[in-house]
Amino acid sequence: MDERVQSQYDDCWEVVRLSGVGLCRENGIVAPCGYKKRYDDRVLGPGDKISIELSKLTLDHASGPDQPGRRSRSSSVRSSGFYWGFGFHAACWDLLAACCKPSLRKLFLACLSTPIGDDGILDWGHTYHGAASHTAPKPFRLKSLTWDAPLVEGLQADPFHVPAIMDLIEGKITPMVDDAMADHSCSLRLEDIGAGADDFYQLPTEFLENVVSLLPSQDVRALRIAAPSFALLELTEAFWQSRFNHEYQYILEALEANPDSWEALYFSIRTLEHGSTSLKNRKRIWDLALKMKVLLSEVAREPCEGPPACSFLEPFEPVDDNSWHKAARGVRTTSDPFYSGCRALRARAVTGNGPLSVRQLFVSLVQLGSGIFVSGLRFATKSRDDICIGYIHPDKEYALDFPPECEHESLYTIAGWYLALDLSGIRAVAALMDNGKLSSWAGDPQGFPRWRLAGEGVWREFSGVKAEFDGLKMVSLSRAVLEIGLYSDRTMVTSSLWSPDVPPSDLYYDGSQRFSSGDSFELPFSVVMFGGPKGVDLSDLVEIGIWLQGYDTITGFDFVYTDSSKNKPFGHIGRYSNGSTEIVYKHSGSHRHALAIDGPGLEVVKSLQVMQEEDSIHGLRVRTNTGRIVQFPSHYSRETTWTHVHPYGSTVVGFYAKCGAQLHNIGLISDNSINFDAALENRKLSLSSSHRRRKSRLSVSLGQLFKP
């Protein structure tokens, strides 16, 4: 297939070039250097074509900027003509160029920030209007359907060269009449419309004509039906010509056309679009080009504000020596395949000598194909000088509302951040104040896992902010922290991603795997507080359901209470629906095992033993404070090592785990302010004392009964 490529030559990021039209091969494309040339031009010489690698999944060998300590590529490598980049169908490129005349550098940066699906297709957050799909067993990869014809009709039809359009311009097809727009006035007479018939009655005709010319046709139809003044208005040739700036703006041939009748051309195009696969394909691609136009308008907000730090695109900037406490999700390194997630291409860092105090904090947001993301921060300081980091959008800036009680001499001290993240970047941000209060959110936090990026105690304050960005948005946020020897402010609560929200920091978290603050978070830790606040629900818990998939893979739990309104699910429970997971078992049905718990009798979970292999749990032993130990599945007989999980706190009130197709890294949440063991012992002592008193009274009574 004919393709054009925007390519980057060796390590020069400022020079992005557009190739000529080339031919795709298995590992890339061979194309002419000149963008006006084609691969089949007879005048091309042996050195006029270059080989270009397309849609590189990794960047460690992509010949990006020389990194500190890395030697530049030799002249022999430069002379070999190594290029890489992103390909566009030649016809699609022509339509994109007609739509928005994109900046090559900004388009390249946007492509560099976009995950790459199967077949090298870029995942912009949509399915190319039916030309691609997210298919199992790789739910996070986009797959092209272009070659699945006739599954999707017309995807291979040439969208740029549609000879029938010129035939229409020449008036060779009889137009179709539109009743609602063209003929609605036929049912009305001038005398039917009197003063006050509608609000437009006394407006000049020229004004009404300008109004309908500015509206899309569907709105004109509705207006003519609703307002008699517009129903009687004659639709002029100027109106019909304006349709080619609205729903038919993709009929590029009309820009230079001078048809006998714009009305006839309009209805002729209506006739053609119902039967021409090429025209349908052009409309699909034009709609995508409009989306790209909007996207590139966001990239146009460069530069990336703030003091630069060493990064992939800016490797010669200073390397900061601060210790950073970082929140991120799905950030890929240069050596990671970029199937999903995001890339950190730039970094900005601001540090100071004291706590971060501001008059106001503004958050810039960007609307992308997959939703709203944070793109930058603007700090309004005491000195009235603004400090900016990232891509600042003045027309899409939102001021955070700080709690009034946090104000001190017209300043607010920020002690940390609350973040909502998905795999592509930061969806929303709120500021955590020095008194523990939270500001309002900027962005869209609903439905996304949360991160509480903050310190505790003496490490509550921080004096620096660092953020990483791709070409469009913020992908990580960090705070400068103090670390002395083995002491650090990084705790599991403040260094992990949690769903549905961050659990309390005054509880204890003990897992089956050792926690590391450098863990990568594809999946958040999910939390179920089956004990309720301060363990108030533990005395109502009567059963824990353990769900297994196949032979022994544990996928979830459910918790049953005396009051059924308190019942809680955790992880995957019930049977899997088709296509919900790529894992296939010989015995694929899920099944439930029940563990009875005497909550009213003060029985609670005391500890766990976990058998975990390859990120899934294959065995679980539950020990309660009554001494019972129950194993799931009960027939588990493999000789293996079990991991013991003991709570640091006195009473277990919840579980946490990463919940994918199965559970893994399960842990206990415990509270040291309550003690069910002591309560159980007191009850036993009370029962024993009561039994002794009853036995003593019985002995006395019997003695009296048999007194001689």
Automatic annotation (TrEMBL):
Domain F-box residues, every copy = 197-243
| Pfam name, any one | Jacalin
Task: Cite the PROSITE patterns for this sequence.
Answer: FBOX
Q: Sorted alphabetically, which SUPFAM superfamilies does this protein's record hold?
A: Mannose-binding lectins
Q: Which Gene3D superfamilies did the record assign?
A: Jacalin-like lectin domain (2.100.10.30)
- Reading the lineage from the top rank, the first entry is Eukaryota
Output this protein's name. F-box domain-containing protein
